[in-house]
Amino acid sequence: MRQSFTGRRKGGTRQVVATNLSRLDDEDYPSVSMGQAAELLGVQPAFLRSLDTAGVLHPHRTGGGHRRYSRRQLTLAGRLRELLDDGHTLASAQAIADLEDRLLVSDRARERADEARREADDARDRATEALDSARSDLRDRADELRRARAQLDDARGEIEDLTSRLRDGAGSRD
Question: CA-CA distance, 75 to 147, in Å (whole number)?
Fold first, then answer.
């Protein structure tokens, strides 16, 4: 999805094409150059190159071979720098960062599962309330039906009595 913007430049019109800017919101989009990344992290570019050489961080390469980093990679590089500054070796820093990442993924999955469980519990509670209400309504209607049947039985008995009296009265006149 491309959007076009027109700008003026020294008397002429220049068409500027803005590509999908939402990619910048993607944590994995490689939008930061090595110099920018080093500046943002407060490290030397050599540190970032060493992470690449060690196979810890795999930046995207442009057509010209320049390294580009994503926000996720910058976060990892920053955490590795902290761990290295705390005295950890690169291998242990990488293991710690990996375990922290796994823990974060696990926590998020657990939170989603807990939310799904709460939603299922709420749905079950609503269904139970609806079922209880339907059962109560059914009991009320069954009671109404029993009363109506009793009234019909009473009416049928009265009709039979009246019919019997009519027959008896008609027979006694003859």
Answer: 75
Backbone angles phi, psi at 145, to 5 degrees: -65, -45
- Which residues of the chain carry a pLDDT beneath 50? 1-9, 11-17
Distance separating alpha carbons of residues 120 and 87, to the nearest angstrom: 47
| Cα–Cα distance measured from residue 125 to residue 101, given in angstroms and rounded to the nearest whole number | 36
Distance, CA of 171 to CA of 51 (rounded, Å): 118
Beta bridge partners of 15: 6
Burial 124-155 (b: 16+ CB within 10 A, else e): eeeeeeeeeeeeeeeeeeeeeeeeeeeeeeee
Answer yes or no: pTM beyond 0.70: no
